[in-house]
Every structure is written in C-alpha cells, then in structure tokens.
C-alpha cells in the first residue's frame, strides 16, 4: 500500500453572501478548548476578588454553562455593591455579573445611580470611567443622562488621550447611544490602521489579547448600532480571528472571557462570517483510504447556518513534487454529519 501526502486548497461557496464574503481560517474553538477555558474561569468561584467573579459569570454564560452556587455569588456581588469603597469599575463588574445571572433578585440601585451619575456629570472623567458608568447604568436599566453632554465629555477626554485603549472603550460607549453613537464610527478606521500584522496571518494591537478584543468587539458592536459595515475587510477579519484563536491557551480568567466574548462577536455579527476549514481525516491518501474529509464550521465549531453550501477543492497537489492531482473537485456532504463534514 502506498500512502501519498496531498495538499489541498479548499474554497467555500454559498448562495448567501455576508458583507464581502466568507473568510476562512484553519482553526476554531473545539470542545476541548472550551473545557480548558471553563477550568481557567473556575478561579472566580473562590469568591476572592470581584473581577474574577465577573469574568467567570459572563464566561460561563458564553459557554452555556450553569453557574455553581449562584446564591453565594449573588451575596458576594451584593456585598461589593454596597461597599463604601465602590468605584465605577467595581459597580460595572457587579452589575454585569448580576444581570448575567438573572436570578439574584433586585439590585439596590440608589447608591449605584448616584455614584455613576456623578461620573457622567464630571467634565474631567476618564474614558474608562465613562465606559464603566455607561455600561453599569445600562445593566441596571437606568438612563445614561444627557447624550450630548456625554459625547462632549468623551470627545474632550479623547483629545487629551486617544490611545488604543481609550478608543476601544469609546466604541463600546458609542454603541450604547443608538444613532448618537455615529460620532465615534470614523475612529474605527483610525484604530484598525494601527494593528500590527504578523507573518501575513495575524492582526493584533500592541497590548495583546485584552486590547485587541476590546477594539474588535467594540468596532463590530458600534457598526451594528449605526447600521454601517465596519471599515474592516474580510481579510482583516480573518487575520484578527487567527490571532484570537492562537490565544486559546490563555491562562487568566480575564483572558478566557475576552477570548470567548470576541470570538462570539466575530461569529454572530452581521458583516463578516469567518469560516473554519479543518481536516476531519488524515491528509494522506492511499488505495485503502482514498478519501479526505474536511470540517466546515464557524469559529465556535458550530455548522454554518447559511445554505446551500458548496465546498470545492480548487486544487490538490502531491506533497514532494507539487504535481496537481485534482482540480475544482466538489466535496460531498458526509452521510454521518451532513451539516459540517464534507468528503472528497
């Protein structure tokens, strides 16, 4: 029996088009990746620090997992909400987790609204504090004050410091303001051009996973709010996806949550559809095993919802001498998994 290695160039075609088309990557968040990320998030259930609890609660929701000992988590959050040292950041953590749990009852909001309202009233508030205040008020169903004043304060803060971090926060703030958030849309392009390309495969921002996730997620959420495609090409979208998927071994609760959140955003936005094409069999073929299978999914490992879907081997070359062994050959759906696995 002779075994031959074959290199494939696979193309995806659909009759449904998302923005400038499907873009492809060679990885996705597998079941084992999700289990490992869940284990990273478990540090939050020690109930030792508020940020870790926040990331654990929100991360578990993204994974579709049930939060353990929810009443103890609710008690911990309530204690932090009533703390005399509560800050905009801590109130953001509390309100986000409380809202996500949806089982803690009513959160006393009087002191929260007072503290956060003062942040929005101050002309000297920082961009991060404005973000925490706006998000927390949204979480507890309260008004965010005068939009025009908020925008003026935010633009003034950005004139002093339009760092990538502040731009990322501003996109998330603007996404909460409806059509009033249009003022920040043009800044998305200003941010994207600062991304670093690595090995012609990855796009990331200086500062790593947390800042890259903040900016990319915020850009797509703002684009959805103002109903305009973000100034991000399909090629850039897949390079960002490649970077995020390369960080699947992240070791902190914050990193695990950021990864899950941004991958969900890239998977479920209205503008780009990054597609993962991975081998479901060995690449080598032989007389006894002449078929090759590929798996086609979104970044979360789920079958694509767009139909009909065609998967074509544009070309296949023999490893070693680069001889073309087939061209424009259509893959057929697998009888065992017609939604995600295709065989040639």
Automatic annotation (TrEMBL):
| Membrane topology, record value | Multi-pass membrane protein
| Pathway field | Protein modification; protein glycosylation
> Is NADP among this UniProt entry's keywords?
no
What's an example GO cellular component term for this entry?
Answer: oligosaccharyltransferase complex
Q: Which domain of life does this protein belong to?
A: Eukaryota
Q: Does the record bear Endoplasmic reticulum in its keywords?
A: yes
A single Gene Ontology biological process assigned to it is: protein N-linked glycosylation
Q: Which residues does the UniProt record annotate as the domain Ribophorin II second?
A: 275-339
How does this chain assemble? Answer: Component of the oligosaccharyltransferase (OST) complex. OST exists in two different complex forms which contain common core subunits RPN1, RPN2, OST48, OST4, DAD1 and TMEM258, either STT3A or STT3B as catalytic subunits, and form-specific accessory subunits. STT3A complex assembly occurs through the formation of 3 subcomplexes. Subcomplex 1 contains RPN1 and TMEM258, subcomplex 2 contains the STT3A-specific subunits STT3A, DC2/OSTC, and KCP2 as well as the core subunit OST4, and subcomplex 3 contains RPN2, DAD1, and OST48.
Name of the protein described by the UniProt record: Dolichyl-diphosphooligosaccharide--protein glycosyltransferase subunit 2
- Organism field: Coptotermes formosanus
